[in-house]
Amino acid sequence: MTFPRFHLAFPVHDLELARKFYTNVLGCSLGRESDKWIDFNMHGHQIVAHLSPKDCSPVQTNPVDGDKVPARHFGVILPWNEWETMCERISLSPVNFLIEPKKRFKKSKGEQGTFFILDPSGNALEFKSFKDDKMVFEKK
Questions:
Q1: Are 122 and 128 in contact (CB under 8 A)?
Q2: How would DSSP label each residue in 17-74?
Q3: 10 Å Cβ neighbour count for 114?
Q4: Is 88 helix (H, G, I), strand (E, B) or coil?
Q5: β-strands 29-33, 73-77: how paired?
Q6: 7-135, what's its fold?
Q7: How far apart are the C-alpha atoms of 102 and 97, rounded to whole Å?
Q8: How far is Cα 25 from Cα 15, in angstroms, rounded to an integer?
Q9: What is the largest CA-CA distance in the chain?
């Protein structure tokens, strides 16, 4: 089945730092760009870093399964082996985990692997995976 592509625009305070982070650390490819924005291909989805320093602000958190999860975040749900590869990729980079890789909701519907990082502008990203992809929208 083919899924529609998702588009997300977000603020950054420095386009060059965003370019280095999203391409070198996360492995995104570049799309179109201007002196005010850059398109990235994040696993087939279009994310766009817009130069807007005034909109870069710390996010509030909510408690989830013992962690302070950023209320505003984005990311992708990867197949389990790709999630493990991304964990390793981040571990080998200069980026620190905001929330270390872990399994959340163990032994219940929706059990998942997850971790959080911040980009150079403070945008929170979550990378997660479900052992059973059918659980992505499953209710408890």
A1: no
A2: HHHHIIIIIT-PEEEEE-SSEEEEEETTEEEEEEE-GGG--PPPEEEETTEEEESSEE
A3: 23
A4: helix
A5: unpaired
A6: 2,3-Dihydroxybiphenyl 1,2-Dioxygenase; domain 1 (3.10.180)
A7: 11
A8: 15
A9: 48
- CA-CA distances (angstroms) from residue 7 to 46, 47, 49, 104? 5, 6, 11, 27
Tell me the pLDDT of the chain (140 aa) as tens digits. 577 999 999 999 999 999 999 999 999 999 999 999 999 999 999 999 999 999 999 889 999 888 999 999 999 999 999 999 999 999 999 999 999 999 988 877 778 999 999 999 999 999 999 988 888 887 76
Amino acid identity, position 136: V
